[in-house]
UniProtKB/TrEMBL annotation:
Protein name in UniProt: Two-component system response regulator GlnR
InterPro entries: GlnR_N, OmpR/PhoB-type_DNA-bd, Sig_transdc_resp-reg_C-effctor, WalR-like, WH-like_DNA-bd_sf
PANTHER family: REGULATOR OF RPOS (PTHR48111), TRANSCRIPTIONAL REGULATORY PROTEIN GLNR (PTHR48111:SF16)
UniProt KW keywords: DNA-binding
Gene: glnR
Occurrences of domain OmpR/PhoB-type (ranges): 124-221
Stored PROSITE patterns: OMPR_PHOB (PS51755)
Superkingdom field: Bacteria
DNA-binding residue intervals: 124-221
Length: 227
């Protein structure tokens, strides 16, 4: 069962905006679309169903406002045939549905919209560079599905380099970015951690971290290079 907020100014909104939704078992709260305080009442439901059948401009503006507040909030906009011709990617809606859609289609669109948000949220924690997958949420690194046993600083160093594929950083820059400006150790610390990272990456992947002579280090995912 999904928690749904229906934003609409219509009387008997649940039955008049999207009748197919009324036939489903989800919990639906109706919030006035035109009320200034309506958006503050939206406390992160599973899906927002937005009435675009009457005031299309207001619906578009509301969708964009919701997206600005929470880019991962799924918004399903209900439209008429005419509205379908006007909707665009800039409206920031997850999906659209015709007001006369049957309950099976409404259920499918709600399910896909909510699951897509979960997938997007999970992807936000992942950094992929070549064959390397770094999960910032669980502090894990895998190469081709095989996990690596890294220390915290090794993880942070690899993550920073992988987030900036192809860019070359001096030892001083890496020390500042990964260890912090108030770290009193020398740049030799960076060399030690790079050496340990390469050893853990193994012979098949150590080339991912390249040494730029007299400058520093770079991450070159997907390219063969000399180190």
């Amino acid at each position: 069962m999904l928690q749904i907020v229906l934003l609409s100014d219509k009387t008997n909104a649940l039955s008049s905006v999207l009748p197919g939704l009324e036939l489903l078992s989800h919990e639906v709260e109706v919030v006035p679309l035109s009320s200034p305080g309506s958006l503050r009442r939206v406390q992160r439901p599973d899906v927002v169903v937005l009435d675009g059948t009457a005031n299309l401009v207001a619906a578009r503006n509301t969708a964009q406002t919701l997206a600005a507040r929470d880019t991962s909030l799924p918004v399903l906009m209900v439209l008429t045939e005419g509205g379908m011709a006007a909707v665009a990617a800039s409206w920031c809606v997850t999906d659209v549905v015709l007001s006369d859609a049957g309950p099976a289609e409404v259920e499918a669109r709600l399910r896909l919209a909510s699951s897509r948000t979960v997938e997007d949220s999970e992807d936000e924690t992942l950094i992929r560079a070549g064959n390397v997958t770094i999960d910032d949420g669980s502090y894990t690194v895998k190469i081709g599905g095989t996990p690596l046993n890294l220390t915290y600083k090794e993880f942070e160093l690899l993550k920073f380099l992988a987030q900036n594929v192809g860019r070359v950083y001096t030892r001083a820059q890496l020390l500042s970015e990964v260890w912090g400006y108030d770290y009193y150790g020398g740049t030799r610390t960076v060399d030690v951690h790079i050496r340990r990272l390469r050893a853990k990456l193994g012979a098949d992947h150590e080339h991912l971290i390249t040494t730029v002579r007299n400058v520093g280090y770079s991450f070159t995912a997907g390219r063969d290079s000399e180190s």
